[in-house]
Amino acid sequence: MKAAATTLTHMTDGTRAPDSLTLGEAGRRLAELRIRDGLTLAQVADQLRSRDLKIDASGLSRLEHGQRARVSEDLANAILDCYMVSPAERAEILGLLHTDTAPARRPRPKLWLRHADLLTPMQFEGYLKQERQASAIWNWEPNIVPGLLQTPDYARAVIESLRPELKPNAVRGLIDIRVDRQNKAFNGTLTDFRALIGEEALLSTIQDTTVMHGQLQRLLHESTRPAVDIRILPRNTGCHPGMAGPFVHMRFPQTTNSAVWVETMATSIYLDHPDETTRYASAFESLWHRALNPDETRKLITEASKEHA
Fold first, then answer.
1. Contact 112, 128 (CB under 8 A)
2. Domain ranges in the chain?
3. Are both 15-101 and 108-308 of the same fold?
């Protein structure tokens, strides 16, 4: 029961992405060292205050969750002194702290600022920041085409169906953000985008046949990109882990951290605990091996495109 409680607590805290991926990993390593030594946050804070370092238990908690914009070398070394770490462990953690991959230190794009009222309720800005940094994105979508591969017309139909409360100008704003995401992702650090799509998404997801035809033609075009691998999971696959719902698994350069994003009707949930991300990665790989190969996928998309034409 104790392990389950720890995971649930981490999931709740994890709805917000860390300010820096490497700081998040360093924070997790520091938390593991503290727990290994049987120390509480308050005890560590007391030791640090005795060295004239002003940080309390809540500040240490934020550090362990990667929610500090910066961690000074003096503070990092003092914390590591509390844990009696080996020289190798000290070097690894200090190396993470010295690697700057924090999106919080870059100006927020004007497009995000203009549509903050749409992004904030869904906690989506954290997702956008990490998407721009990711070197690998594995996206499972059982019923629709992934956002990074959508045409504007298809995106409009999906957004209007999923968010019927939105006014036309808000829908246009989300479409603009989606198109901008595509440009930034495929012209950035992304080198491995795997789109795993349920066969259902090729059929009657969008009633407008012209829109569906254009979207399927877009899939065929995108499948020729070197960094893109599109696979279709057949409807006759049977029960599988992906039935729990869509998700995005991300990996990043300069850190061993990975992250998972799960979108609900009300918000986005961010997971980065290794137990959680490993489970999702394993689920994706299991589905990936059951999916059609690239040639079979292209053939099926081509046939579906002809039907919609």
1. yes
2. 15-101, 108-308
3. no
What percentage of the chain has pLDDT greater than the value 70? Answer: 90
Q: Give the C-alpha separation, 265 to 260, whole Å.
A: 17
Q: What CATH number is given for 108-308 in this structure?
A: 3.30.870
- The token pair at 215 is 């979207």
Q: How far is CA 139 from the centre of its chain?
A: 9
The CATH number that domain 15-101 falls under is 1.10.260.40
Q: Please state, as a whole number, how many other Cβ atoms lie within 10 Å of the Cβ of residue 107.
A: 7
How distant, in Å, are the alpha carbons of 11, 71, 99 from that of 21?
Answer: 16, 13, 10
pTM greater than 0.85 (yes/no): no
Asked if 158 and 212 count as a contact pair (C-beta separation under 8 A), the reply is no
Handedness of CA 103, 105, 108, 109 (dihedral sign): negative
